[in-house]
């Protein structure tokens, strides 16, 4: 794709085959609407998700106006169209349910005939064929069913002198009809069958059924045909592939019925073929949607696992190894929340194209979900060879990408897992690749890494911790401790900082350093931060003590639209005045050029909430935000406090930071004060407020603590 604004390609987003999403959806709707057969898509519980007009006609359903055929897509609950199968003809409901349930239960295609019903003014049976759509664990996640009036199985008896009537009936039939010898050689054929297969009648009469059935289906056909001739079966109905003139292919329903003599011995066969190619094309589209990611067109998780298994099977002969590369986009949540989800999708679609273009011929590029992509490499010798592919993917992704007039250079962290056993488990390879990705991220991102036994153990523990933390948020294992912030003149408590702790059922009270990085990386920080804000405000509102409560807010919280609305709601519910809430933000948020973050800061200020810059002086590269944003205070990081009075550089840095704050007329709080000497030195240079163990350790009690 030429470098340019990816927004320009949004309306022309294309699948790997070059067809745009809109064109693909339009074709799909036209195809389903034009099918001569009914099509139903049901979930595993039998709820009908999609029905085309022909299905409604055959079943007697009244379809909602917005249930017209379309590519199924995730929709909000209040937009879901429910199609009630119980509104169909009562005689059909039980049989349709039985056949689709059997397909779900067995994981295999099921077929059956309903009792006769009036269709177009005459009694007909309906042929129902249900095909399960399987997930990666082999279970049916949905079932696609075709419904059509069943062809007449028994040939009409020929009246005396009725040869001409039989010939005219054959020639004008809308389905392919032939009379064959018992060995399948064509004796008579009608025009429809000739048109289906692309042969003249004389050409077809020189062939047998085995010549026009797909080579992979010939053995099955011959075995079933032998059973029919021997009398083991009265009639045959098979869904088979046919090969016509010039190698053309079609799917069709094949019905074989014997013509018997007066002694009931079969002498010839009546062959009926109904072209079902359109239906199978529609079912193929459904299967494709199940196995491919809708945004990028790449294989999704079920198909990726299948490709890994196939690659492992091939290594038994080659003796080489399979490499699985998990590629996570670095800091994509920031891009997504700032640019908006639609533009975020464009970024993911472009990254998907780049990953697919960077892999070797024969390798598989897929998308696991979110910002996680995967590459399956066949036949690699060692880690270095897999690393070459990883570097090629990284280089392709890192090309400039223009979004809304801004140039981005996305990067990916790649985790590599190599197979050691052809009998290995694809899921374990994916897990190892995920662990290696965490390792690559922890070592600086925009790189690739592998996993060894030590890393595997550490990554497993990290994944376990993430799952436990997710449960801890909802199970009430988190608690808040409060550390006082005091005035150095008199040491009155002017506020308290809320600090989260995790009382783990096995590991006891855990400090934030052990779990907050996991929360940040997994995205749980948003849910955890919301809990901290709510409980801290409630604790302050229910206390008679004066002063404010300070709450640390993650960058991931701040850049999400609606954070200020959440704060306003929490304040209103608790009754705490906005002036008694302080939001502590890191310098990375203050320096961010993201409009979303700056807008949320301005709205918090308008509410009356004070903004304090936490860990001030540890990583800033510009001070313009102190002028441009409504900052009411700064907190000097504890790393500068430890050397006060002993290290002249620390002294000069702290003096400079305090002078800066005083010059701007904003509050300055020094963290990490642990000794009387430090307190006296700070008071001597004009520091008014401080925080540290000298004045009080974090306590689960909010009330006033002696200092």
Automatic annotation (TrEMBL):
Residues 320-453 form the GGDEF domain. InterPro entries: Biofilm_reg_signaling, EAL_dom, EAL_sf, GGDEF_dom, Nucleotide_cyclase, PAS, PAS-like_dom_sf, PAS_fold. Residues 24-62, 162-232 form the PAS domain. This is EAL domain-containing protein. One of its GO terms (biological process) is regulation of DNA-templated transcription. Residues 1-20 are annotated as: Disordered. CDD domains: EAL, GGDEF, PAS. NCBIfam families: GGDEF (TIGR00254), sensory_box (TIGR00229). Residues 462-707 form the EAL domain. Gene3D superfamilies: 3.30.70.270, EAL domain, PAS domain. It holds the Pfam family EAL.
